[in-house]
Design a protein that fits this description.
391 residues; Aspartate Aminotransferase, domain 1; Aspartate Aminotransferase, domain 2; globular; binds ligand 0PR
Length: 391
């Protein structure tokens, strides 16, 4: 503890200086993040209501009402209005909540196993470790889709759940959820869909006329969905979404907290004290942008994605891994070699993409802060690097 208090001005000055090291979204250099600058309206709301605590919802019944309302709205967006759920801190918490519910549902299985595609996010590894579940990973086909035959071969008497991803972390692909649903029905398993990234894109792409396979609650055996407002929902961090179709499971497996100041309450969350401002800001954003607003944002991201894809494919020595389905592009070399070197060289020039070394892919996420002029600047640097490497 410093013994001389500083003035507010001094502190702000120091913060400005020290935080100037941080990258900003509007610089254009952040090309591999699933987050973006939230809308100013949402951040204003967020800071206004910063003290709301949904860990004790009886004290903040207005905030709780907004949470319930937004969950129903999201349920409707994903094919079933009649859902229970909660705004979480992000995809990791939501995925762990889903795994916990599945584990509790199959308490009779002493060595529970979950099967996820090899492309699944690391949050499932975390959940498995924390919950004492064995995680089995199904291989991907050579075009990076989930190999359904391998999934089937991994099922055992210990299996409790399956995961399908609608918007994979590496390439934004959609697993064949309908087929996965069939497997889950045949084996009476819990089926969770991780649409942390895709949840706020796919419904709008569909409305824009894209051919999107079914992935949501409209499929009978999809029991829970993760969809994150702090990714393409453009809400301030932290803001995740967890939705559950069978509401009886909330009664059965919600944690009962009897002594709260606001009165006893049941919840699913991993957290106790939790930020209500996220929920309020997202509710505000949802009402402000409306479906039309989100649709326009997704449309613009897809236009820039197509432009980016075209520019990448024009550069000798590199190519786009698969045709993008959403605003994620995987970049690789002709034979997958030297991807790490390209990443290293790009980093020297400040560009920040994601390196998926196991897949030999550089991932770009075309969030709303990524503009055409950033792509142009990036492609000039990328071409200089590849020319040196491949000539
Ligand atoms: N599920 C999927 C499909 C994800 O892609 C992610 C995160 C999660 C779950 C977990 O979400 P939380 O990070 O909200 O817990 N995907 C991003 C990734 O790993 C997270 C991210 C965001 C990484 C911003 C970097 C970054 O700058 O790529």
């Amino acid at each position: 503890m410093k013994d001389i208090a500083k003035s507010k001005e001094k502190i702000i000055e120091e913060l400005e200086k020290r935080l100037s090291k941080d990258l900003t979204y509007d610089s254009g250099f952040i090309l591999g993040s699933m987050c973006s600058e939230p809308l100013k309206f949402a951040t204003e709301i967020y800071s206004k209501y910063i003290s709301k605590n949904l860990g004790d919802p009886g004290l903040f019944p207005g905030t709780m009402e907004l949470e319930n309302e937004i969950i129903q709205e999201l349920g409707g967006l994903f094919g079933c209005r009649n859902v229970v759920g909660t705004i979480t801190t992000g995809g990791t918490e939501s995925n762990i909540i889903a795994m916990r519910i599945a584990r509790n549902l199959f308490k009779n299985k002493k060595n529970p196993e979950f099967i996820v595609p090899a492309s699944a996010h690391i949050s499932f590894d975390k959940g498995a470790e924390l919950l004492g579940i064995t995680l089995k990973k199904a291989k991907l086909t050579k075009d990076f889709y989930l190999d359904l035959n391998h999934i089937s071969s991994l099922i055992s008497e210990n299996t409790i759940g399956l995961v399908g991803v609608a918007g994979t972390t590496s390439l934004g692909l959609i697993d064949p959820i309908e087929k996965l649903a069939k497997i889950s029905e045949e084996n009476s398993l819990f089926l969770h869909v991780d649409a942390a990234f895709g949840g706020f894109i796919l419904p709008f792409l569909k409305e824009l006329g894209y051919n999107i396979p079914r992935w949501d609650f409209s499929i009978k055996s999809v029991l829970s969905i993760t969809a994150d407002p702090h990714k393409m929902g453009l809400a301030p961090i932290p803001s995740g979404g967890f939705l559950l179709k069978p509401s009886s499971l909330y009664e059965e497996f919600g944690y009962e907290i009897p002594y709260l100041a606001g009165g006893g309450f049941k919840h699913f969350n991993i957290l106790g004290t939790r930020i209500g401002a996220s929920t309020i800001a997202f509710w505000a954003l949802w009402n402000y942008l409306g479906k039309e607003g989100y649709k326009n944002i997704v449309k613009e991201c897809m236009e820039i994605t197509s432009y980016f894809e075209k520019r990448i494919n024009e550069i000798p020595g590199i190519k786009v891994v698969v045709k993008p389905i959403m605003n994620i592009i995987g970049i690789t070399t002709e034979n997958g070699e030297k991807v790490e070197i390209i990443d290293e060289e790009l980093r020297k020039k400040k560009w920040k993409l994601g390196l998926f070394n196991n897949l030999k892919i550089l991932r770009a996420v075309i969030m709303p802060h990524v503009k055409k002029e950033h792509i142009d600047k990036f492609c000039i640097d990328l071409e200089l690097i590849t020319k040196k490497l491949f000539n």
